[in-house]
Design goal:
Protein name: Dymeclin
Keywords: Lipoprotein, Myristate
Family: Belongs to the dymeclin family.
Distance between the termini: 43 Å
Radius of gyration: 27 Å
Pfam family, one: Dymeclin
Order of helices and strands: EEHHHHHHEEHHHHHHEEHHHHHHHH
Number of strands: 6
Largest sheet: 2 strands, antiparallel
InterPro entries: Dymeclin (IPR019142)
Amino acid sequence: MGSNSSRIGDLPKNEYLKKLSGTESVSENDPFWNQLLSFSFPAPTSSTELKLLEEATISVCRSLAGLWTVFTLGGVGSKAAATPELSSPLANQSLLLLLVLANLTDAADAPNPYRQAIMSFKNTQDSSPFPSSIPHAFQINFNSLYTALCEQQTSDQATLLLYTLLHQNSNVRTYMLARTDMENLVLPILEILYHVEERNSHHVYMALIILLILTEDDGFNRSIHEVILKNITWYSERVLTEISLGSLLILVVIRTIQYNMTRTRDKYLHTNCLAALANMSAQFRSLHQYAAQRIISLFSLLSKKHNKVLEQATQSLRGSLSSNDVPLPDYAQDLNVIEEVIRMMLEIINSCLTNSLHHNPNLVYALLYKRDLFEQFRTHPSFQDIMQNIDLVITFFSSRLLQAGAELSVERVLEIIKQGAVALPKDRLKKFPELKFKYVEEEQPEEFFIPYVWSLVYNSAVGLYWKPQDIQLFTMDSD
């Protein structure tokens, strides 16, 4: 089935392209559709197989064309519409179809061809040959795809496509991580997390996992601190006239953790937020003073929660001594979870101090300002080892400030910290294994993704009606 022939089966090439695309306007020389025609399929041996092959080819090509319509019909280069699914219904339908097909389960004897195609397609500028093991290979303009994905992250389905491509297609992931304008992609993802109250939990999960995948790359972790942003209007807790993308990312992730602690209490969300921060910690650079404050404030919140649970456990134990009939709440489990999170926060702070102390005077300042918070953990068996470096830094810089005299200005304190960072011998800080976390899908990801995709079809597809009472794949109040 080659694109160089003037006939495809019994039809002239231009007629076959019209049938394939479902439109009269497709050109015989269109490079995208010609590329799709170059898919390699086994030769049919009967008229029945020929018919089935033709139907399968049309289905595969139209589904993959969804990638194209996502950005050609979505208006590449134009301002993103507030409701992209309404302004471009065909693009929306194409994307939903693509997601449904990509998430079909593999057959017993053959992998899902749609997923194979999504995992292996390449940039149009990549001239290297496809491996012979990839039967459904095609190329697409990565710049246009990147632009469209940056513009469309207000919708669940666009975020899910971005996740799918980053996680499954190494060509796309490599291209995106090499971009010099990563803020165009990261900022919309941060907005999703920032407006967590207005988003459904699945959308928040996808946005967070995208960040986790990005933070697996050290180059990304370094570059985000070199991108300076001005006037982030959607961040309302504090006026941010100038801040690095890295510091903003830290602020939003910490805010997500704090929201989760007080509202949803989802351990999975906690774990992924902390993993992203941990991945970045060794490359923290020139942290904004507010980002440094929020890191210590989060630790303060965790410390208070730890003390509260300890107090509740003690009171409950005393009460149980006078009544053997009252079952004890499982405070041990709560305490264990909180101590795991505290341990991770201490490791993140330690990683920054060990690897980039001289780059982060604001974090040292915040650490010294709240140094009493760490006192109770110095001799705690769960934290004693990780507290060594933090305690050393606090002691070292406190001594230098004491020598400088009383009533020091903020500027003077920061100056002393910068001088001290140079003077502190690096070999005095104990080395710990590098903090690195990698996203891995669950063993049966289809149990999450198939209901999620079909819930998007139900809620977002235009012109399709479904009987609510007949839906069994997901609950109607599912978000």
